Amino acid sequence: MPTSAPPGNRFERRRAETRGALVRAARQILGETGDTSVSIQVIAERADVGFGSFYNHFDSKTELFEAAVRDALEEYGRTFDERLAGIDDPAELVATGFRLSARMAESHPELMQVLRRRGLGHIHSDNGLARRARRDVEVGMASGRFTAVDPIVALSALGGTLLSLVELRFARPDVDGDAAAVNLAEMVLRMLGVPPDDAHEVARRPLPDLA
Length: 211
What we know:
The protein has helices at about 10-30, 40-45, 60-85, 90-105, 110-120, 130-145, 150-170, 175-190, 195-200. By secondary structure, the protein is mainly alpha-helical. Helix 4 (about 90-105) runs antiparallel to helix 8 and helix 5 (about 110-120) crosses helix 7 (about 150-170). InterPro entries: Homeodomain-like_sf (IPR009057), HTH-type_TetR-like_transc_reg (IPR050109), HTH_TetR (IPR001647), Tet_transcr_reg_TetR-rel_C_sf (IPR036271), TetR_C_40 (IPR049513).
């Protein structure tokens, strides 16, 4: 879960802990069922906080669930920052992102279920993986690695394909997730203008460890 600077006093620490517990409870609900119609009482009980504490942090369930989605997407983005550090090739960054996402369906199921159910509305947000993906696309275009197109359009194509891959991993567990991710990674690289032989090789480079 995302962390921030430690609050300066006991009251602020307790307040931050309560808010974090509510966000974690909302993330669990989104990951398990996606049912945002649950009562505030149920959320508070799962978070192990008092019912009245809810309104000290959020005006509505909608606000809480949006905070939970942002929290999950930021964790998703930070996971990629940690695993992809040192990779300079924009094409490899894109391909590795697809392949790691497929594996995270098993290693980080709650997070990826949140992405599966709520990710479409955040493809063009300024948090989580979206801003990182746009940065990598723009670097790839500036360097000539990718064909120069509208980055927003490219991000729409990448985000939609990634969400389709995540859906495939959960809806069809019988399908080889690694193989599907490699094939999709190669396809999106070719879509971005990477030559076929190059896209084939990049999509099969060794992956960083998710452990």
